[in-house]
Every structure is written in structure tokens, then in C-alpha cells.
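User: Some background: our group keeps a shared notebook of sequences we're curious about, and every so often someone picks one and asks for a predicted structure to add to the entry. Today it's my turn. The entry only has the sequence so far, pasted here. Could you supply the structure so I can complete it?
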Amino acid sequence: MKIKLAAIVFPLASAALAQGFTTAAEVKPILQATKTNWVALRDYDGNDLLYFTHLESWRCGLAQVRFSVNSTAATRVWEMEPCYEGTAQPNVLKLEDHLPYIVIPQGMTNTVSVVVVYDDGTEDRADFERKAILMP
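Assistant: Of course. Here's the predicted structure to add to the notebook entry:
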């Protein structure tokens, strides 16, 4: 009987979790705790690739992401995939129309500033030095 009960409860819990993380109240604590992972930088094939994958993964609950390279202005808007609300995985990345990174000439990224605007209107900010976000 315990096995049958677990078989029923686990899928229900998984379905409930999959429907969450679509509001500022749900994603803000996660993004605040993982602020050092908001962006990543990769030196690849003669370019710097600035990745926004982490923010894309938690984009449901965000109204906007702004950033700047080598400036603290953070005025450039990062265009995110839509949140696929009403699906089992609203935060899934389909990557059909855009990639989760921008290409910058190699070695030209010294600092990155990011402002996250939550769907409740509040904002968080992070400023990064190259070495802090450079992937091995």
C-alpha cells in the first residue's frame, strides 16, 4: 500500500512544482540567493560569449532584464523568451528564435552590470568583474 500511495503523491507533487515559479514572489528569493550566477562569460572561438541562461531559466516572474558591458548604466534590454504559462514547464527554454548569449569581441568584456525588474515592479542589481563571471 505504501508503494501505491507514493506513486500517486509523487506525480502530484511534481506537477504542482512545475506550475510554480512564475511570479516575482516565487523567483525573487531564488535570484537573490543566486545573484553571482546571473550571467556568465565564456572565452570561445575568438569571442567573449556573455550568457544570460540563469536569468532566462527564471524569467517567469520578471518584467525585464537590463544590462551593460563596461558601464554601470544597465540600459540595454535583454530580450527573453516568453514564459510558457499554462504548460507543464513554463520556464522551459525552447531556443527557437534566439540564443541565451551575446557575442562580444574577445577580451573586450571587463565589467557587466545587470538590473532585474520583477513583475511586482521591484528591482535588483548586480555588477560583475570579468574574472568573477569567466567560465573555465
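Suggested note for the entry: The two ends are 49 Å apart (CA to CA). The chain has a mean pLDDT of 88.
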